[in-house]
Design a protein that fits this description.
The complex is a heterodimer of chains A (492) and B (36).
Chain A: H1 6-9, H2 15-26, H3 29-41, H4 45-73, H5 79-84, H6 89-126, H7 136-143, H8 147-166, H9 171-194, H10 199-207, H11 211-214, H12 217-231, H13 237-244, H14 251-280, H15 284-291, H16 295-307, H17 309-344, H18 349-369, H19 371-399, H20 403-411, H21 423-450, H22 459-488
Helix pairs in contact in A: 2-9, 2-14, 3-12, 3-14, 4-10, 4-12, 4-13, 4-14, 4-19, 4-21, 6-8, 6-17, 6-18, 6-19, 6-22, 7-16, 8-17, 8-18, 9-14, 9-17, 10-14, 12-19, 12-21, 14-15, 14-16, 16-17, 17-18, 18-19, 19-21, 19-22
Chain B: H1 2-34
Classes of the chains: A mainly alpha (492), B mainly alpha (36).
């Protein structure tokens, strides 16, 4: 069966190789760049508290559900949900395409971020971080929004087109070694950062929830979106991965592995970045606000600068190489997910890779040049688009099939599953249909209506974004419906 | 107080992650015993 996964795991079809392949998908720029940016700007400890709640209530439950769609539906984002659903099959196919669409829109700015990381790898090679006159903020400001960063980002996208279009294999066998290296490097960075003098204030900000931000729906909505963005739920990847799994692979283990490994890296990255800002700055909150999306890119090189000398140089080099690798593997995997429905309807992989790659560069160009555009794309697709995809997974598994029989099928695997699913799983899947919707409405109502026009961070573009999502959704439903008719011959 | 929270959370999150690495080896061994 054509699948996006064989190239990841064909050389070592073992449970560890599979775990590393799917964790390689989860861990990427999101754990460092997006996590620190969102966590520091949306309440610190409160964000972390909400994040941990979402891991239990939503992430594991729906990762299993998404894997189940692929495993039992035997197909990518288009066919998987269609085959899986017993009722409303066309809507299920539409939901799969929705996920692929959201993935594509995220691909449009993921190449930009991967480009930044690559640029920082070059800085590390050239010894920029350990120079006496190194200025982390100035380095970031000179890169962000520059045409140099666009050029490097485009190179990353061309790399992704080559890997996906030509079907280059073997990269993930390197990724299997790279992930444990990145894990250990991040752990050491975290220890280094929290032992800096003055870091305990940052630790307090990162760990202790505050009531005023706990009652702010933005904290909950942003942490929910961070959980699904970072782990990679509702992107369509787990559907494709589930289709590939062997008979004896346990999807509860894979889901659990995704959730805890991804969280461990994000947790340690947060420990490396946030306490450092408090240790080196007299006005940390102002600095966090000023750094915006560049927080990780300002803080991490500061750590290598603090280390100094050969140790700082080598550590920076090793870290940014491993980090870039994690981001690049995630970049071309997102690209693979986007290509999958196009391949399924018969487009040659190379053509599909070039077409989507060029479109991603054109559509994503504004995000490389301005923070407002990046924030806009990330809010509309990263927050709203993915959350609706999440609700769609819950809807398909919770209501379009007999959930109880799916639960039993998941539990039937031999050797026994790591986490046997009880009837709690059925309930949580169903509850998750409304959770993203309730929090979304609360968020919009609070910030856009109660706080009033101009008060919310996203006020001036949330509504146009929602209109784009609605119109795009209608077009996508039509496309999904026509494609299914064409493939099944029902339209003839 | 923050150090207690820190150690508990780190213990849970990082140890669980490392446990999944170990578990994958154990599971693969059992899979090989059972056969494909």
């Amino acid at each position: 069966m054509a699948s996006i996964l064989p190239r990841f795991v064909e050389r070592a079809p073992s449970a560890f190789a599979l775990l590393m392949a799917v964790v390689g998908w989860s861990v990427g720029a999101g754990n460092y760049w997006r996590f620190s940016w969102r966590a520091a700007n949306y309440g610190g400890g409160s964000f972390l508290f909400a994040y941990l709640v979402w891991l239990i209530v939503t992430a594991f439950v729906l990762a299993v559900a998404e894997y189940a769609i692929g495993r039992f539906g035997r197909g990518g984002p288009l066919h998987g949900p269609y085959n899986f659903a017993q009722r409303y099959k066309k809507f299920a196919a539409f939901a799969g395409l929705w996920m692929a669409w959201a993935s594509f829109m995220i691909l449009c700015y993921y190449w930009v971020v991967t480009g930044w990381i690559f640029a920082y790898m070059i800085y590390a090679i050239s010894g920029t971080f350990t120079r006496h006159d190194f200025n982390a903020v100035a380095t970031w400001n000179s890169l962000f929004g520059s045409w140099l960063s666009v050029g490097i980002g485009v190179l990353m996208m061309i790399g992704s087109i080559i890997v996906t279009g030509l079907g280059i294999r073997g990269i993930s066998s390197v990724a299997r070694i790279m992930f444990p290296i990145l894990f250990i490097l991040t752990a050491i960075l975290a220890i280094y950062s929290i032992t800096l003098p003055g870091a305990s204030k940052g630790l307090e900000f990162y760990l202790i929830p505050k009531l005023e931000s706990l009652v702010d729906p933005a904290t909950w909505m942003q942490s929910l979106s961070q959980v699904i963005w970072s782990i990679g739920i509702a992107w369509g990847f787990f559907i494709a991965a589930g289709a590939w799994t062997r008979k004896r692979d346990d999807i509860t283990f894979l889901s659990f592995g995704n959730v805890v490994n991804d969280t461990a890296v994000a947790w340690m990255a947060g420990l490396a970045i946030i306490p450092l800002i408090f240790a080196v700055s007299a006005t940390p909150m102002e600095d966090i606000k000023a750094a915006g999306t560049g927080l990780a890119f300002i803080a991490l090189p500061r750590l290598f600068h603090e280390m100094g000398g050969l140790a700082g140089y080598l550590y920076g080099l090793l870290f940014f190489t491993a980090f870039w690798f994690a981001a690049f593997t995630s970049l071309y995997t997102i690209h693979e997910v986007v290509l999958r429905p196009l391949k399924d309807i018969g487009m040659p992989p190379s053509q599909a890779a070039i077409l989507t790659g060029i479109l991603a560069i054109i559509i994503g160009l504004p995000t490389a040049l301005s923070f407002e555009w990046l924030d806009y794309y990330d809010t509309v697709w990263g927050v709203i688009g993915l959350s609706l995809g999440l609700a769609a997974i819950a809807l398909i598994v919770g209501f379009f099939v007999d959930t109880e029989s799916i639960r039993r099928m998941i539990n039937e695997v031999e050797p026994k599953p790591l986490i046997p699913l009880g009837s709690w799983w059925n309930i949580l899947v169903k509850v998750n249909v409304v959770i993203p919707v309730i929090f979304f409405i609360w968020w919009i109502a609070y910030w856009e209506w109660y706080k009033g026009w101009g008060a919310g961070l996203h006020t001036y573009y949330t509504f146009p974004g929602i209109i784009i999502l609605i119109i795009g959704g209608i077009i996508l439903y039509y496309v999904a419906s026509r494609t299914i008719d064409m493939l099944t011959g029902a339209g003839k | 107080m923050i150090w207690i929270i820190f150690f508990i959370l780190t213990w849970i999150i990082v140890i669980l992650a490392l446990y999944t690495w170990y578990y994958s080896y154990q599971r693969e061994r059992k899979i090989r015993e059972l056969g494909e």
